[in-house]
Amino acid sequence: MIDTLRNADVLVIGGGSAGCTVAGRLAAAGRQVLLIEAGPDYGPRTSPDWPADLLNARTLPTSHDWGYTGPGGAGQPLALDRCRVIGGCSSHNGTTQNVGWAGDYDRWAAQGCPGWDAASLAPLFESALHRYWARHYRQHEIQPFHQAVLGAATAQGLPLVSDFHQLTGGAGAGCAPVNSSLEGVRLNAAFAYLDPVRDSGQLEVLCDTLVQRISFKDGRAQAVHILHQGVEQRLPAKLIVLCAGTYGSPEILLRSGIGPRDHLAELQIPLTHDLPGVGCNLHDQPTANLEYEGTQALAEALAAFEADRVLMDEQTIIKLRSPFAGSAPYDLHVFPWIERDPSLKHGWRCIFPVGLLRPRSRGSLQLTSSDPRAAAAIDTGFFADPEDLPPMLFGLQWTQELIRSPALANFIGAPLATLPQQQTELTEWVRRNHRHYWHPVGTCRMGPASDPYAVVEHTGKVHGLEGLHVADASVFPEVPRGTTALPCAVVGERIALFLLSGAC
């Protein structure tokens, strides 16, 4: 099959949320596209080959994980979940879609990324929501636990909102649009963007294929070197769009000799282009989870609901403003969910994560080997900046008050862990027990050529090289204050438009 693809106009590396978007948009515009995916491709939405867990939007699957790990804020090991399958993390996430806040994108534009302001991106968010078949829950679909959460939030003084698809949305509690069907089927990026062009003759998908490196001649990308079915092969390329994600894209750049000179020299990787920012600026949204036993009343209410409706684990999001939010309308998410736990008396666990949406802390990614099968060294950088702790502590205090609300009293049982009362001890508890919101970004960030740590220009083109672009969450200068699946699709939409317009 590979021999038939040597004349593709565009090679897209990575079939995740952004990669599917880029490949689908370029193929629909008449480009001949080869999409290279490290994981399996189970085909279109109608294929019977899709594993049930990847289609089940009721809960989060754990299969098809890349196996990335890194240290938390106190050095504890964290699993850094990323999905290795066509559709990428859109095939295993919670299907909640929100756009974030306009001011964050306007800040991208002000920092030297024209075309990334909120007004320019608004129609692309609308397009992505349409492609994902995003819909709002109807009232009768909101299960009893989440109805109680909404009641508790209003008792805390927050308004009920349904503005998660609006860039001007503010603080409040509600249910964001979801890319899942009424039957609870997850609708991933491959269904949204690849299915319309799978039979067009413009797209080929090469799955179960690792990219070793990209080779260059006179500063222009020439070929992608892959490992397919145990065989090393070289695919000539006219244009390469790297969409391997916040961890995968810098890994491939580094293996290609693009990155910090000293780091590449340590690994004896020949230098192609010295770009100090590759692998830097890594950040994710940390979370601290409050966990409780579910009561018998909760178990009974959920069983009655599930008798004739789809029971979703996760539905509500609270957009909360701490005293440290500055001019922004919110800086925290509280996104409760329930999960079955047969070890507990009534079979249910209630989890209330508090997520910091705009962390100041930064980490990094470095290679440990030039072998694409070797795990990278990921330093998450969580809580490296102590200013990330006060808003988290505020969020935990507020959420404890939420949990004590009469609206939740019948459903929330004993705490599964007791939080320290002293602030210094609570701070240490957060460092040792935090998790993450599954939203890593920033390792190939956009910025002008005058910024020595910018990896790509505003069109996604890698600084100082031709024929190579990056389009995924790695190019985010800063994480927007929301979930990142939809912004990843918008990155794909935006950079595909740049490519098709000739602006690159």
UniProtKB/TrEMBL annotation:
<feature type="domain" description="Glucose-methanol-choline oxidoreductase N-terminal">
    <location>
        <begin position="245"/>
        <end position="259"/>
    </location>
</feature>
<dbReference type="InterPro" id="IPR036188">
    <property type="entry name" value="FAD/NAD-bd_sf"/>
</dbReference>
<protein>
    <submittedName>
        <fullName>Oxygen-dependent choline dehydrogenase</fullName>
        <ecNumber>1.1.99.1</ecNumber>
    </submittedName>
</protein>
<dbReference type="Pfam" id="PF00732">
    <property type="entry name" value="GMC_oxred_N"/>
</dbReference>
<comment type="similarity">
    <text>Belongs to the GMC oxidoreductase family.</text>
</comment>
<dbReference type="InterPro" id="IPR000172">
    <property type="entry name" value="GMC_OxRdtase_N"/>
</dbReference>
<feature type="binding site">
    <location>
        <position position="85"/>
    </location>
    <ligand>
        <name>FAD</name>
    </ligand>
</feature>
<keyword id="KW-0560">Oxidoreductase</keyword>
<dbReference type="GO" id="GO:0008812">
    <property type="term" value="F:choline dehydrogenase activity"/>
</dbReference>
<dbReference type="InterPro" id="IPR012132">
    <property type="entry name" value="GMC_OxRdtase"/>
</dbReference>
<feature type="binding site">
    <location>
        <begin position="438"/>
        <end position="439"/>
    </location>
    <ligand>
        <name>FAD</name>
    </ligand>
</feature>
<keyword id="KW-0274">FAD</keyword>
<keyword id="KW-0285">Flavoprotein</keyword>
<dbReference type="GO" id="GO:0050660">
    <property type="term" value="F:flavin adenine dinucleotide binding"/>
</dbReference>
<dbReference type="InterPro" id="IPR007867">
    <property type="entry name" value="GMC_OxRtase_C"/>
</dbReference>
<feature type="binding site">
    <location>
        <position position="211"/>
    </location>
    <ligand>
        <name>FAD</name>
    </ligand>
</feature>
<feature type="binding site">
    <location>
        <position position="437"/>
    </location>
    <ligand>
        <name>substrate</name>
    </ligand>
</feature>
<dbReference type="Pfam" id="PF05199">
    <property type="entry name" value="GMC_oxred_C"/>
</dbReference>
